[in-house]
Design a protein that fits this description.
Layout: H1 31-38, E1 44-48, H2 55-68, E2 73-77, H3 78-83, H4 93-112, E3 116-120, H5 126-136, E4 141-146, H6 150-156, H7 161-166, E5 188-190, H8 197-212
Parallel strand pairs: 1-3, 1-4, 2-3, 4-5
Helix pairs in contact: 2-8, 4-5
Length: 215
């Protein structure tokens, strides 16, 4: 998470609908056909939780495990996307919403292509996560709350972000100076402060098997 946001990086405009002259063009290969070709069900596992909770660590390990099993998946990591696709966005509530919208649209396209997607983002607002669910589709959206407590996340703090947030150097930092809204009905909650990575990933593979028939 960046320490400051230049004015040019702030997203302030509304999300505009496509003009009436833009018409969607249907392809000849359906999402279901791509899934059959890959022998897997395409879903998006949406990891939400505080910075340092273990979202990205778990997502990348799951991607590795599925690759070894012959399944095709991809990680959409919030920090990585802010260096590229979302590099023009800051951390205001408006920008956070646009950040989630863009990632959800990408995840939806990847699901259409037949891929299993692991999205690892703080995504602090319930309304934004519900928007992501709507974009991706309720049957493909699996919300997982990485519920590692704040004191554990802050104790890890590999980048020193919490220390800087506590001293006011990073404004609008989730859990310190910006809110985090806990999911009301996630498909699964996991506390990486109580489990090893191996245990956490094993539990998530069980969830994938149950919910998506993967792994």
């Amino acid at each position: 998470m960046q320490a400051s946001v230049p004015p040019s990086a702030l997203f302030s405009g509304p999300v505009l609908a496509a003009p009436c002259t833009v018409v969607a063009h249907a392809g000849h290969v359906t999402a279901q056909q791509r899934q059959r070709l890959l022998s897997q069900r395409a879903v998006t596992v949406w990891f939400t939780g505080l910075s340092g909770a273990g979202k990205s660590t778990m997502a990348y390990e799951l991607e590795h495990r599925l690759h070894d099993l012959g399944l095709v998946s991809f990680v959409l990591d919030g920090d990585n996307l802010r260096h590229k696709l979302n590099s023009d966005l800051g951390f205001s509530p408006c920008d956070r919403t646009e950040n989630i919208r863009r990632v959800a649209e990408v995840a939806s396209l990847m699901n259409d292509a037949g891929l299993i997607v692991f999205a690892a983002l703080i995504s602090p607002y319930r309304a934004d996560r519900e928007m992501a669910r709507t974009i991706i589709g309720p049957s493909r959206f699996l919300e997982v709350h990485v519920c590692t407590p704040l004191h554990v996340c802050e104790g890890r703090d590999p980048k020193g972000l919490y220390d800087r947030a506590r001293t006011g150097l990073i404004p609008q930092f989730t859990g310190i100076s910006a809110p985090y809204e806990t999911p009301l009905n996630p498909v699964f909650s996991i506390d990486t402060g109580r489990l090893s990575l191996e245990e956490a990933v094993t539990q998530m593979l069980d969830v994938l098997q149950l919910k998506a028939g993967a792994a």
